[in-house]
Design brief:
Layout lengths: L2 H74 L4 H42 L4 H37 L1 H90 L14 H43 L1 H19 L8 H32 L7 E3 L1 H18 L3 E6 L6 E3 L1 H17 L6 E10 L15 E9 L33 H11 L3 E5 L7 E8 L3
Parallel strand pairs: 2-4
Antiparallel strand pairs: 1-3, 4-5, 5-7, 6-7
Length: 546
């Protein structure tokens, strides 16, 4: 199965588990919340209606007192009899109105209690709630009974007020007020107290419902987390294990073990990747083998060429030395006088022979370096004198072409361990190169100083040396170098020539040979230039050996 389908199934499983847990929790909390809120509303209504009943009842009792007072005022103040009768009528209407209001609130309270009884009956396992609602029902019956008696007394009292004020006053003190204070009012207050207790109980239930909802949400979160963790574990195991194997095998392939293969068979993307990596390793192995064979063949041919040139040193130089020797004897008039034409021709032959010998020497030196024959012949070398003598070798040419030649050496060690002959060859090649590519009237500057080797510049060749090294720089105002040629000029047989010196002679081996000799000393060489026509600087450093 493809990885994307595994991930899709995993995410769908997590989503489904979340949905199931959410639905179950929602349905359960919804039912509990509905029942609790219904009971709570019933309790609130009971308390509210009871409070209204008390207000109506007390207002009715107050109306009875006002009725006696107005009747008394009408008897003892004949002039205000008419006003008293109007007040008596209003008081009676006020009493009847409050009695009706009490009956209405009593009816509403009865309905709320009946609703609570019905909900308590549906809760089969809540015996406490059934007992509480049954008690409220008994209070309602008692209030209805006591209020009926109270209402009869009120109407009897109002009748007595109109015919016998003294009898009404006695009735008030002996029957109506005691019944109100000792029977009806305590009953209503007891009913209200039980309703408040029921309301407090419903509030506690709401609090428990909220706690249960939080607990359900928490448990749901744990269930979802565990489901996601389990699914994630299996998905991770299905992906990470083969990926870890791929990573380890890829690291081994990257380190060069191209014979290793990834043993993972699957039709998913990881299996396809393993198969491609195996194909890649096989192709790399074939390519590497072919390249190695080609490299070995090329190295064998190169060594054969280098060995041939190195071994042919005597055979090549001997005839040329004979030519030069006999030519010098004739040119120096050892065998008689020469005319001007003969002398010119012989000088040309002699100059060409010397140039050819120089080229042969360069080729033989390169051949020896490539064949591994050159070795350092270390000895005490006075570096300052060596640099001064190197300048003398090109001084005649500098004077001839009007080139200003300057030397600047800072405090250098008096003696260093180096191969003096190879250092002379390095200096001659670099100075000759600068002279060759500097136009007449230009400037060539030689400078040398002590510098220190950074830790990241150490190589196996210079690791046994000290951190100090000699830096030599040859700067010129010649044709300059493009950025892409700064490294190419150190390759064998490479030349970068400007228009002004297009007829210059050379094999392109001088800088390559200087580079090999510098590296043989454990140093390095490089070129710097700001661009064509802006001159060049050649620098090399060699360690100061102890």
């Amino acid at each position: 199965m493809k990885i994307k389908y595994k991930l899709l199934i995993g995410f769908l499983g997590i989503a489904l588990s979340v949905q199931i847990v959410s639905i179950v929790a929602y349905r359960k909390n919804r039912v509990i919340h509905y029942e609790v809120m219904q009971m709570y509303q019933s309790s609130v209504n009971e308390v509210e209606y009871t409070s209204e009943m008390l207000i109506a009842l007390q207002s009715s009792q107050t109306g009875c007192q006002e009725l006696i007072e107005e009747k008394f005022r009408g008897i003892h103040r004949p002039l205000k009899k008419k006003d008293a009768e109007s007040s008596i009528q209003k008081a009676e209407e006020h009493i009847r109105k409050n009695l009706d209001a009490f009956e209405n609130y009593l009816a509403l309270g009865s309905k709320a209690t009946e609703a609570a009884i019905q909900m308590a009956a549906s809760a089969e396992d809540d015996e406490k709630k059934k007992n509480e609602t049954k008690k409220l029902e008994d209070w309602i019956k008692k209030i209805r009974k006591d209020f009926g008696l109270y209402k009869q007394m009120v109407f009897q009292f109002m009748a007595l007020v109109s015919i016998n004020l003294d009898g009404a006053d006695d009735f008030w003190e002996q029957k109506l007020e005691p019944h109100f204070n000792t029977v009806l009012l305590p009953t209503i207050r007891s009913y209200r107290a039980d309703s408040k207790a029921e309301l407090a109980d419903e509030i506690k239930k709401i609090e428990r419902c909220v706690i249960n909802a939080d607990r359900t949400i928490f448990i749901s979160g744990i269930v979802v987390f565990l489901s996601a963790a389990i699914l994630g574990f299996f998905i991770s195991a299905a992906i990470s294990r083969p990926l870890a194997e791929l990573t380890n095998k890829a690291a081994k392939i990257g380190s060069g073990d191209l014979d290793i293969r990834i043993d993972y068979k699957s039709s998913n993307e990881i299996g396809m990747l393993a198969e491609r990596m195996n194909d890649m390793a096989a192709n790399l192995n074939k390519t590497t083998t072919s390249l190695q064979e080609a490299k070995e063949a090329a190295e064998t041919a190169n060594r054969a060429k280098s060995d041939f040139l190195a071994n042919m040193s005597h055979e090549i130089r001997t005839p040329l030395n004979h030519i030069m020797g006999f030519t010098e004897l004739v040119a120096y008039k050892k065998f008689g006088e020469l005319n001007q034409t003969q002398e010119d021709y012989l000088n040309e032959v002699l100059g060409s022979s010397k140039h050819l010998l120089s080229l042969i020497n360069d080729i033989l030196d390169i051949a020896k370096a490539e064949s591994g024959k050159p070795r350092l012949e270390l000895g005490d070398t006075n570096i300052k004198k060596l640099l001064e003598k190197s300048v003398v070798m090109v001084k005649e040419k500098a004077i001839k072409h009007g080139i200003q030649l300057t030397t600047e050496t800072e405090e250098l060690p008096e003696v260093i361990k180096a191969d003096e002959r190879k250092l002379k060859q390095i200096m001659y090649n670099l100075l000759s190169n600068s002279m060759k590519f500097t136009p007449d009237g230009g400037k060539v500057s030689l400078s040398a100083r002590i510098c220190y080797l950074a830790e990241n510049q150490k190589t196996p060749e210079n690791d046994n040396s000290t951190d100090s090294q000699v830096e030599v720089s040859i700067a010129d105002t010649g044709i300059g170098l493009a950025k892409e040629n700064l490294e190419r000029i150190f390759r064998p047989f490479e030349q970068v020539m400007g228009v002004a010196i297009s007829d210059s002679e050379g094999t392109g081996l001088g800088l390559s040979l200087a580079k090999k000799f510098v590296e043989l000393h454990g140093g390095r060489i490089w070129a710097e230039s700001e661009g064509e026509g802006k001159g060049s600087v050649f620098r090399f450093v060699i360690p100061i050996r102890s």
